[in-house]
Amino acid sequence: MADNIKAQEQHHLDGVIQKIKVAETSLQKKIKATKKDVKDINANFNNDVRLKTETYSGMMETAMSIRQQQQMLSERENRQEYAARELGTLTKLEVNPYFARIDFREGDEKRDETIYIGMASFTDRPDHYLIYDWRAPISSIYYNGGIGDVTYQTPDGEQTVDVKLKRQFQIENAKIKTVFDTEEVVGDQMLLDALSNRSDTKMKSIVTTIQKEQNQIIRDTDSELLFVQGAAGSGKTAAVLQRVAFLLYQYRGNLHSGQIILFSPNQLFNDYINQVLPELGEQNMVQMTFYQYSSHRLPSVQVETLAQRFDEQFEPHAQKINDVKGSLDYFKAVSAYANHLNTEDMRFRNLMFNGTVLIPKEKVEDIYYSFNENYNLRNRLDATKEQLLKILNRKIHVEMRKKWVEDAIQNLSREEIQQMHKEGEEEILDADKEFKFLARQIVVKSFRKVQRQIVRNHFLSINNQFVHMLRNIPKIIHLADFDITESDWQADIKATVGRLKEGRLSLADASTYIYLYDLMTGKRGDRDIRYLFIDEVQDYSAFQLAFLKFSFPRAKFTLLGDLNQAIFTHENSRKLLDELGSMFPEDKTRVVQLTKSYRSTAQITNFTKHLLTNGEDIIPFTREGDLPQVYVEDGMDSAVEVVKKQAEINLADHETTAIIGKTLKECQQLTDKLAETGVKATLIRTENQRLVKGVIVVPSYLAKGLEFDSVIMWDASKECYGEERDRQLVYTICTRAMHRLTIVATKTLSPLFDTVPTTEYEMK
Ligand SMILES: Nc1ncnc2c1ncn2[C@@H]1O[C@H](COP(=O)(O)OP(=O)(O)OP(=O)(O)O)[C@@H](O)[C@H]1O
């Protein structure tokens, strides 16, 4: 690039930065003035507000003026907060205002227009944009095409412009480091630079190098269901985080980050991605795992953890049961079962008081089914509660005459009596009335617990109902279709009842349990959530997805997945797509396929794609590195020695290294062995830990969605990965590596690597 262009652009840059500084100064003044205002308002609070509490109108006047003061205060505080946020944006822009320039001609216009694109918009006067936010409709030109005709979406429909120049910048501390013109969509050089960087314990934004297909995902506003199927490392997670930033920009004022929820594979992953949105100047959306959601909905039940679930899936018997419990058929069966509760079979509990039955369950049942068939579960329950509260009220008189009440009155202290009068606002007239008054107070107070139980549906017996449902399932679903016998099912019920008694539930049962309870109580779901994202959707069952759709009825769904990385559902994951299709309107469903893999070097991607039986569609990004290295050692000690040496080499090269083992047990053993040889490695036992720099040892199921400079797969032997169904797990492990992949096995290498041509790796 000619030096004079660089000089011209630096000159332009200096001008923009100058204007940003002016804007900053004026904002700072504004903030200072508002701060002073707030201080003054607070200081004058006592003077301005005259407290008149003698008369009713005086009190009203006082309340009004306090309200006025508060409104003024909160308006100033909002203004201050907004200005502070704006100042934060300007401070960021001041050092790195933009990353691209586009010159283009629109329609019949006589002159070219020039725009600069950066992390946020900046105007020096109304409608005079010196920088356009990367999310503005016009900025799409940058992502959608090269030179020549490029189309982009505007609020008024599609628009085509003739792009004359596309220039990219790398700016550091207000100085242009490099500037180059490109004819491509987003220059490969820039992408290569971005991808060659070392990994970090935190994911970064990809705004400057978003690819065209990713841009489609980011800016989709029409789909009710957007399903992104993409190879490992194809930027699904990256794209979706930019999408959240885009949506918050597009619907500013109507959508806030609390209305967006992301279901992620594990807590480590949450931690890994939580800097991206703040880096983009936005607040993080709500992030949780499905396990956390279920546990939150069932505070008194211990839901099976990810690790327990991972270990359990290796039993073929449990797998079949899980398959049926995860199916859409099962979801429909639970719905049908709940529906029939409108006419019979609802299970109730006695309402107890002081150890005796106050309202027997038979009475509750009579009330519940006394309403006609036009009632649904929701209003049937409401009407029942109303009746029960009335009955409770009527029982006050009877209870007042009981001996325990008389005793309680005898034991009342003077203070307690005074307190009751304060609450009851009743004057003492004569002894009899006083006795009745106190008796009533005592009973009403003691009945509060029962009242709460009625309001909170404690007269429903969800545990019994759940077990009753399980017993009825064979009548609704043909279990033989799932290769399950009646006795298999009965055995599973027994196991479930056993767990329930200990206050535990499997994750599959937990979803069903909550769903059943929601249907029984007529819950309509959380209507506030507008966008719901699920990462690694291949690990969800159709049941869970249908349940989430039910729980967030107004949310648009964006689902990201790689059917080749299912760690739980295996072959079933392909069925998932069809089942999903049936849950959303066809014309509002969009499936996007991402085939290019960005994370790893070409060598690693070429190696890993052969691990898949249908991996031919995966296109590596041309970033060069070493061939993956495979070691097969005779014994444990020499294998550990290889791991040790490799970890040391990686450390010396400043590479973050993850040693990924299959289960926690294997990881624990290796960490102990490494410690004996003097290697310090951090074992990640649970998802609640933090990722740290240096060498970490992590079980495969916690490595989902993460990436590391170097990966050492341990122990890639036949003994550990002997089954065909482990293929996706092996693929997931190997695709975590960005720059370097080492595979270490003891005795015999897993046959799953047989599909990889020997030219794709180096056998050591
Ligand atoms: N357009 C891009 N520009 C720069 N980096 C990118 C781009 N797209 C993806 N990447 C990088 O590639 C890596 C992989 O992306 P990401 O984790 O989003 O992939 P993924 O599809 O979610 O992978 P997986 O399914 O294996 O978890 C990340 O480091 C991401 O920053």
From TrEMBL:
One of its GO terms (cellular component) is cytosol. Pfam families: UvrD-helicase, UvrD_C_2. ATP binds at G230, A231, A232, G233, S234, G235, K236, T237. Residues 209-601 form the UvrD-like helicase ATP-binding domain. Keywords: ATP-binding, Helicase, Hydrolase, Nucleotide-binding. InterPro entries: DExx_box_DNA_helicase_dom_sf, DNA_helicase_UvrD/REP, HelD_bacillota, P-loop_NTPase, UvrD-like_ATP-bd, UvrD-like_helicase_C. GO terms for molecular function: 3'-5' DNA helicase activity; ATP binding; DNA binding; hydrolase activity. SUPFAM superfamilies: P-loop containing nucleoside triphosphate hydrolases (SSF52540). GO terms for biological process: recombinational repair. NCBIfam families: HelD_BACSU (NF041464). This is Helicase IV. It comes from Lentilactobacillus kisonensis DSM 19906 = JCM 15041.
